[in-house]
Amino acid sequence: MQESLTFLQDLARKAGDIMLARRQHRIARFTKADGTWVSEVDLAISQMVCRAVAQFDKGCGLLTEETYDASRPLGSRGFVIDELDGTRSYLLGRTGYTFQAAWYAEGGQLQIGLIYDPVRDLMLYSVRGQGVAVQSGQHLSRVAPPPYRPWNQLRYAHHRDLMTTTQQQMYRRLRVPAQRIVETGCVGSKVIDFAFGKVDALVALNRFIGPWDWAPGKVILEELGYRLSHVDGSPLALVHTSDSSYGYVVAPPAHHEQLIHGLRWVQQREVRRASPAVHAQS
Fold it and tell me: Residue 186 and residue 88: Cα distance in Å, rounded?
């Protein structure tokens, strides 16, 4: 497993180098069928990733945002990668974009999670059962699990470019005031904020959220003691067949069930209307 971790660390830095080298240049942008943006930088990193993975382990599986094929089998081991998480922020010249990667073993069991913020040269990673580490430049340290916070003090991570009517109603029903809604960037940036104790909970609403969005952070967040599930309470898995999961939830174990209970109305009435707008966070 150490070999796979080292490979992902090297891959992350190569992806970060591509992001930083091209961010001052004119970058071609395309809009995908779901309304999200993809750039030539996403695609350049994707090509680099595919070549590197093939050279590292020809027999492993590979799930990436830009090469996703639902019919492709997972295999007994492989990688889940988001080449450039936060494309919109990247193209707009803002911070809050990352490289995300995970490694899974037999049965799709996630064993390694890694997130790299190239702007800050900050790498957050975890191996299942070994806790969480963060490397900032040359400094390497361990990340301690967060202290307990009561339900009425939870701070919710929320993408800075997205606040739908459904989400406004969600926060009202959960009795979350504006001062406990923390504006964040991409999914990877949110996980970093969890690790640094800036946020305590997350509700991501969408009818389909790709595994590259949540898989890298899942290992890290679970090692920090958080519980993750779909909004309907079902477990997050690389192969998920439910058509009523409506996104996913991150919360401390003491509050997870209460949060799921508070979101039942979302499943029943509102998420279908929110799904098109949610894609704006990519």
Answer: 9
**E-assigned strands of the chain?**
29-31, 37-39, 61-64, 78-85, 98-105, 109-117, 122-127, 132-136, 139-143, 156-159, 181-184, 201-204, 227-230, 248-251
Task: Answer whether 138's CB lies under 8 Å from 148's CB.
Answer: no
Domain boundaries, the chain: 2-143, 151-281
What is the assigned CATH class of domain 2-143?
alpha beta
Cα(90)–Cα(188) distance, rounded to whole angstroms? 13
The residue behind tokens 């992001």 is 19
Closest to 190 (Cα-Cα) out of 165, 214, 162: 214
Edge-to-edge order in the sheet of strand 132-136: 61-64, 78-85, 98-105, 109-117, 122-127, 132-136, 139-143
Q: What angle do CA 263, 266, 267 make, to 5 degrees?
A: 100
* Backbone angle region of 137, left / alpha / beta, with phi > 0 → left and psi within -120 to 50 → alpha: left
- Tens of pLDDT, residue by residue over 62-87, are 999 888 776 677 788 999 999 999 99
Tokens representing 206? Answer: 């969408």
Q: Which residue has the tokens 């071609």?
A: 28
- Class for the domain spanning 151-281: alpha beta
Q: What is the pLDDT of residues 23-42, one digit of tens each?
A: 878 888 888 776 778 899 99
- Rounded to two decimals, the pTM is 0.90
